[in-house]
């Protein structure tokens, strides 16, 4: 990604200061975020959980704007899990659905101003029809934007994504005669909801929970994970940039050795020197 495709001059001064510490050649291509802690944010203020969700929706737009200004190609936000849909009270689920519709209605213009394209992953076909209609409208209205692709994970679960992928791969094997022995990782990748996207480089989770809660299990095999105690409604663009700064301090080895590490020439050692400690 080059600086030319970004609008870093539009960053507010505090974000620009963090951005200047980053290496523009090593920005992540794909950042995924588990937006957690809305309920706790509200609880700390003796407010109903709904207020936390409302503030959480506000935070989304700040983060999307910063992502688009730095030219991040892919931003994926875990907004509503399958388990949230199944396990939370109907009143909360209904509120979240209403909030999603309002968020889309109020923000499509800003997405267009920021050249952001919106898409979705998850079992979205099971969401209420009026929500699906608004989602489709927003996707259509932002379809031609070429900046950040904002993907909302809605009614999403990674295990059900894998189930859906294996179902469609099985159907393909029956149709085409693809043999089980010929199936490789790329075949599974092709059938995921995220087939068109690179794997996340960085996964952020807010509110301090050290778990992935059924998010992108296949795709995060080598993703760098950053957990912050900050609750999602308090998360802003500057915190995204701080997470990226932390990411740039990491060394991604993908199971290999650090750059410049000399490999032991084991073959030339006598067998008794292979015993630990000798
Ligand atoms: C994240 O906040 C938003 C959704 C899961 C929809 P939570 O609602 O999980 O907030 P906490 O974790 O209870 O604080
Ligand atoms: C993960 O948060 C799901 C989303 C952020 C949408 P949860 O609050 O549902 O996760 P758990 O229950 O703490 O694992
Ligand atoms: Mg939570």
Structural commentary:
With 278 residues, this protein is of the alpha/beta class. The chain has one domain: Decaprenyl diphosphate synthase-like (Undecaprenyl pyrophosphate synthetase, 3-Layer(aba) Sandwich). Helix content is 42%, strand content 12%. A six-stranded parallel sheet has the order 3-4-2-1-5-6, with helices on both faces. The longest helix is centred in the middle third of the chain and has 24 residues. The model has no long low-confidence stretch (mean pLDDT 95). The site of one 3-methylbut-3-enyl trihydrogen diphosphate (IPE) has 11 residues, from strand 2. The site of one 3-methylbut-3-enyl trihydrogen diphosphate has 10 residues, from helix 2.
List the main descriptive attributes of the protein structure presented here:
single chain, 278 residues, alpha/beta, Undecaprenyl pyrophosphate synthetase, 6-stranded parallel sheet, 9 helices, binds 3-methylbut-3-enyl trihydrogen diphosphate, binds magnesium ion
Quick overview:
By secondary structure, this protein is an alpha/beta fold. It is built from nine helices and six strands, in the order αβααβααβαβααββα.
CATH superfamily, called what?
A: Decaprenyl diphosphate synthase-like
Please outline the major beta sheet: 6 strands, parallel
The helix/strand series, from N terminus to C terminus, equals HEHHEHHEHEHHEEH
Q: What's the CATH C level?
A: Alpha Beta
Helix content: 40-55%
The assembly state of the depicted protein chains is: single chain
List the strand order in the largest sheet.
3-4-2-1-5-6
Over all CA atoms, what is the radius of gyration?
21 Å
Beta-strand residue percentage = 5-15%
What number is the mean pLDDT? Answer: 95
Query: What structural class results from the helix and strand content?
Result: alpha/beta
Distance between the terminal alpha carbons, to the nearest Å?
Answer: 49 Å
Q: Give the distinct bound molecules.
A: 3-methylbut-3-enyl trihydrogen diphosphate, magnesium ion
Number of domains: 1
CATH topology-level fold name: Undecaprenyl pyrophosphate synthetase
Low-confidence stretches: none
Number of strands: 6
- CATH architectural category: 3-Layer(aba) Sandwich
How many H/I helical runs?
Answer: 9
C-alpha geometry: globular
